[in-house]
Write a structure and sequence with these properties.
Elements: E1 4-9, H1 13-23, E2 30-36, H2 40-47, E3 55-57, H3 60-64, E4 71-74, H4 80-90, E5 94-97, H5 105-118, E6 122-124, H6 132-143, E7 149-156, H7 163-167, H8 182-185, H9 188-198, E8 203-210, E9 219-227, E10 233-239, E11 247-253, E12 256-261, E13 264-270, H10 274-280, E14 290-294, H11 303-317, H12 328-344, E15 348-349, H13 354-366, H14 369-375
Parallel strand pairs: 1-2, 1-4, 2-3, 4-5, 5-6, 7-10
Antiparallel strand pairs: 7-11, 8-9, 8-15, 9-10, 11-12, 12-13, 13-14
Domain GFO/IDH/MocA-like oxidoreductase: 134-258
Domain Gfo/Idh/MocA-like oxidoreductase N-terminal: 4-124
Pfam family, one: GFO_IDH_MocA
Length: 376
C-alpha cells in the first residue's frame, strides 16, 4: 500500500495524541515520519514512545526541510497556524490544520489564498463533521424536505473548566497566547457545525463576558443573537462555568423541528408546512398534527482519525475531503464577529471589518497579562 508520509508540528495534548494513534497503525494510509516541538522537554517525552525511525526536530522549519515528510499536521498554538501552513505550502507540502484556522480572519484569508495558489491539499481538523448525528442533521436540512430554517438555538455549556485548568499555563486564556477564550478554544467545532448545517448568518449581536466566572482576561460566558439572510434568527450560548452543562442544538424549520441532545436526534415532523398552514387555517388556535420520532443516525464516528484518513486519501487518490481547509475561515468569522460585536457594543454585519477587528484585538494584546510579563 502506498502511504502518505506525515509530520506533526506541535506535541501538546492534540499533537501527541495524534502521534500515539498513528504509530499504532490506526490510519493505514499514513506513516508518521517526523515530529517537531520548540519545547525540548516535550520532544524527550515523545522519544519514549515513538520509534527510532521518526525524525525529531526542535524547529518546525527544520522538519519541513528534512525531506522526511510530504504532508503536515499543524497542532501548535492558534496564532502559528497560518504562518506554518504558508511555510509548508511554499515548500510543496500538503497541510492538515488543527482548529481554529487562526485567531483573526485577515491572517487566515492570506493562508487560504496561498493554499489555492499552491494547488496542494489543505484540510481542517473539524472532526465533529464525522459524527453521524450532525451528518444526519446536515442531510435533512440541506435536503429541503423540511423547508427553510426559521430559528436556530444552540446551548453548548458542557465545557466546564476549573481555575486550575486556566492556571496550568501562562499562555492559557490570554489575548496574547490564545487570542480569546471559550469561543476560540472550546467552540470552533460548534461554530463550524452551525455554519455547515445552517449556513452563515448575516448579522451578529453578542455579549462576551471576560473573566466572569474565572480569574482570566478573555471570555468565559457568551450569548449571541444571529440573523440569517432568509430572515431566520438564532441564539448561541456557551460558557466554561455551567455545571452540569448542556449541549442542545435545536433547528426549527417550516415542516418541523430537529433536536439534537444526549446523543439522540429527534424529529418533530409537521403534517403541513407551517407557513402555508398559518395563512390557510380558519381557526385561530389550530395546529397541524405532529409526528415525533427518533432519527436513526448510523455511520462510523471516526473523529480525528477519520479526518486524517480523509486527508491522506485526498492526497493519494484525489478523494473528497470531509472539511476543506479554506472552510476554516467561516467558524473563525463567527467568533471574530461575536468578539467585535461585544467590544463595540454594536450589531456586526458579516463579513466583518477585518481591519477593525485586528485593531481591537491588538488593543487587548497590548494590555494582556502575558504581554506585560514578556516585557518585564
Amino acid at each position: 500500500m502506498i502511504t502518505l508520509r506525515i509530520g506533526i508540528i506541535g506535541l501538546g495534548n492534540m499533537g501527541s495524541d495524534h502521534a500515539k494513534k498513528l504509530i499504532r497503525g490506526t490510519v493505514p494510509e499514513v506513516e508518521l515520519t517526523a515530529v517537531s516541538d520548540i519545547d525540548p522537554n516535550r520532544l524527550e517525552v515523545t522519544r519514549a514512545y515513538l520509534p527510532e525511525t521518526v525524525g525529531f526536530f526542535g524547529r518546525p522549519e527544520d522538519l519541513m526541510d528534512s525531506g522526511l515528510c510530504d504532508a503536515l499536521i499543524i497542532a501548535t498554538p492558534h496564532y502559528d497556524h497560518p504562518r506554518l501552513a504558508i511555510q509548508a505550502f511554499d515548500r510543496g507540502m500538503h497541510v492538515l490544520c488543527e482548529k481554529p484556522a487562526g485567531v483573526y480572519t485577515k491572517q487566515v484569508r492570506e493562508m487560504n489564498e496561498r493554499a489555492q495558489e499552491s494547488g496542494l491539499v489543505f484540510a481542517m481538523m473539524f472532526n465533529q463533521r464525522t459524527n453521524p448525528l450532525y451528518r444526519k442533521m446536515h442531510e435533512l436540512v440541506h435536503g429541503g424536505q423540511l423547508g427553510a430554517i426559521k430559528r436556530v438555538n444552540w446551548i453548548i455549556t458542557d465545557w466546564y473548566r476549573t481555575q486550575a485548568y486556566y492556571d496550568s499555563g501562562s499562555w492559557r486564556a490570554t489575548w496574547t497566547g490564545e487570542g480569546g477564550g471559550v469561543l476560540i478554544n472550546q467552540c470552533p467545532h460548534n461554530l463550524d457545525l452551525l455554519q455547515w448545517i445552517c449556513g452563515m448568518p448575516s448579522k451578529v449581536r453578542a455579549f462576551c463576558h471576560q473573566g466572569k466566572w474565572h480569574d482570566i482576561e478573555v471570555e468565559d460566558d457568551v450569548t449571541a443573537y444571529l440573523e440569517f439572510p432568509n430572515g431566520a434568527t438564532g441564539v448561541f450560548i456557551t460558557t466554561t462555568a455551567d455545571l452540569p452543562g448542556t449541549n442542545r442544538l435545536e433547528i426549527t424549520l417550516e415542516m418541523g423541528k430537529l433536536v439534537c441532545e444526549n446523543n439522540t436526534l429527534t424529529l418533530h415532523k409537521l403534517s403541513q408546512n407551517e407557513r402555508v398552514y398559518c395563512f390557510e387555517s380558519k381557526e385561530g388556535f389550530a395546529q397541524p398534527s405532529v409526528d415525533v420520532s427518533v432519527v436513526p443516525a448510523e455511520g462510523d464516528n471516526s473523529q480525528h482519525m477519520g479526518i486524517i484518513a480523509s486527508f491522506a486519501k485526498a492526497v493519494l487518490t484525489g478523494a473528497p475531503l470531509i472539511a476543506q481547509g479554506e472552510e476554516g475561515i467561516r467558524s473563525l468569522m463567527l467568533s471574530n464577529a461575536m468578539h467585535l460585536s461585544s467590544w463595540t457594543a454594536e450589531t456586526v454585519q458579516l463579513p466583518i471589518d477585518e481591519e477593525l477587528y485586528w485593531q481591537e484585538l491588538n488593543k487587548r494584546i497590548e494590555e494582556s497579562s502575558l504581554s506585560k510579563a514578556q516585557h518585564n
